[in-house]
Amino acid sequence: MNKLVEQLHALSSQMLDAHNADVLEFNELFDKLEEAETKIMVRDDLLIRQNELVQKQKGELDSLLKKHNIEVQKANAALRQLEGTVASLQHELAKLRALNPEKLSKQVANLKERNTELLASNEQLKRKNGELSKAVSHLTSRLEGANKPLWSVGRESLMEAGAMNIAVCGGIQNHAVWWRHDSGFQLLCVLDGEADEIRISDPAFETGVIPLPSEYAVESIKSILRPRLEKKLAA
Questions:
Q1: pTM of this structure
Q2: 67 HSE (CA, 13 A, CB side)
Q3: Which of 33, 102, 122, 223 lies 20 to 30 Å (CA to CA) from residue 93?
């Protein structure tokens, strides 16, 4: 009987140890899952902010284009009105030639003054149209630059990351680029100037398999970021 009781105690102890080991393993897996979810949320937040920036720039450009088109329409309408006014003035001038010279001379002087004012107004409209065209061209270049890769080969490309502060090796960097893979994955990369090495600031990836930049991509990241870092250190 005592032997049976001892066996039951031993079995109970083994079952309790196995249960405790399962609970410990479950807790470790749960912690890893929470950590992975946090990293995914951080990466998604960065993507959302980057998309919001591009959409904001696109909205500004669209707004300016609409204003530019309105101004162009106004300028064209004013030009057509000026053309009609000039035609009317020419018709009036033909009539005045049949009048007495003194009265004709006075009216011609008045017409010349009015014509000068109209020409000055026309020049102002042309200058304003030119300024608006330059502004639209500038914003168009900025928007194209925001969506244009800094470098692209095969399935890899490098995109401007914009202004952001990133903690790297105990310091803060504000120059970075996105390395993108056409599978949809991207990494935020900065240059460690002292070690001349690329540091990955956003390594989260939901599948657990992280496609890393090729050596060619790494060298291209260095060639883009090294002049920026040297310029910052020299300032």
A1: 0.32
A2: 12
A3: 122
Q: Which among 163, 161, 166, 165 has a CA at the least distance from the CA of 149?
A: 161
Tokens of 152: 């692209």
Inter-axis angle of helices 2-96 and 101-147, nearest 10: 160
Distance CA 16, CA 22 (A): 10
The residue ranking higher by pLDDT, 171 or 13, is 13
Query: Please, are residues 233 and 194 in contact by the beta-carbon 8 Å criterion?
Result: no
* Residue 45 to residue 51: CA distance in whole angstroms: 10
Q: Kindly provide the b/e burial profile for residues 157-192, where b requires at least 16 CB atoms within 10 angstroms of the residue's own CB.
A: bbbbbeeeebeeeeeebebbbbbbbeeebbbbbbbe
Q: Is the pLDDT of residue 132 over 80?
A: no
Strand partners, 180: 157, 186
The secondary structure of residue 97, as a DSSP letter, is T
Would you say how long the chain is, in residues? 235
Beta bridge partners, 156, equal 153, 181
Task: Render 34-65 in DSSP notation, one character per residue.
Answer: HHHHHHHHHHHHHHHHHHHHHHHHHHHHHHHH
Q: What is the DSSP letter of 214?
A: P
66-75 confidence digits (pLDDT tens): 888 888 888 8
**What whole-number distance in Å separates Cα of residue 50 and Cα of residue 178?**
11
Backbone angles phi, psi at 9, to 5 degrees: -65, -45
